[in-house]
Amino acid sequence: MQLGLVGLGKMGFNMRERLREGGHEVIGYDPRPEVTDVPTLGALAEALDAPRTVWVMVPSGPVTDQTIVALADVMSPGDLVIDGGNSRFTEDGRHAKLLADKGIAFIDAGVSGGIWGLTEGYGLMVGGSDDNVARAMPIFETLRPPGPREDGFVHAGPVGAGHFAKMVHNGVEYALMTAYAEGYEMLAAEDLIKDPQAVYQAWSNGTVVRSWLQKLLAKALKEDPGFDQISGYTEDSGEGRWTVEEAIRLRVPVPGIAASLFARFLSRQDDSPTMKAVAALRNQFGGHAVKRISESG
């Protein structure tokens, strides 16, 4: 199958390679001349045979908006656009309408797999009509992991469902990473444990907590014991926040996901105002000692 791919970053670049290895003709566009196959989006549209299918793999938000608007101007009725970035599901309806007004179909696709997707395959969660999903299925089949289709691919529902599923996936990911990280900190704090990395390595087989994330933590500890080369500052790319916001809207309790999101906020504070206030209160009501900042700073 022929595919246009917009965005050749860490994931898009590897997706192009996996699809090409799977026998597809992939023409990629990226603003960086060292990785792009064509100089412009217009040139990409010209290089594809109608009806075209173009996969957008760019950062969510304004960049995705601008890309879809630009594609609407250079594509034709009967073409198909797939948004595979981490767009918020509430944006999908607007993008679908903008394209539908010009006779262009739309699919939203949540993609998981990171830099390992090239060799391991990508977990795919898609939203769209049955006909449009079937049309793009050769691409999905090559990108997904080997094995039964249902173990790595889901047509989650109509437009918006794919990105909603990916949003929840990333919220769960937040909580899992925090739980594994807290476990590591406990192991490292106990003198009885001589090698926290060896413990995490042992958990990789036979235990009920084994997972790909757990194995990646064992790998990271082997490469940098004690994480001496890494700052604790942790960003959040949006999906965890959206998960908590939607949980509030749906009145679904997600304490683990919410706590993991707030833990990321806490990681960015060199000296937490909240904990300063707690220390001051303990001093006020109980006379508990507080650690003072010296006059020299």
Automatic annotation (TrEMBL):
Record's keyword annotation contains Lyase: no
Superkingdom field: Bacteria
Keywords: Gluconate utilization, Oxidoreductase
PROSITE patterns: 6PGD
Domain 6-phosphogluconate dehydrogenase C-terminal: from-to ranges: 162-296
InterPro entries: 6-PGluconate_DH-like_C_sf, 6DGDH_YqeC, 6PGD_dom2, 6PGDH_C, 6PGDH_NADP-bd, 6PGdom_BS, NAD(P)-bd_dom_sf, Pgluconate_DH
Family under the similarity heading: Belongs to the 6-phosphogluconate dehydrogenase family.
PANTHER family hit by this protein: 6-PHOSPHOGLUCONATE DEHYDROGENASE
Name recorded for this polypeptide: Decarboxylating 6-phosphogluconate dehydrogenase
Organism: Mycobacterium deserti
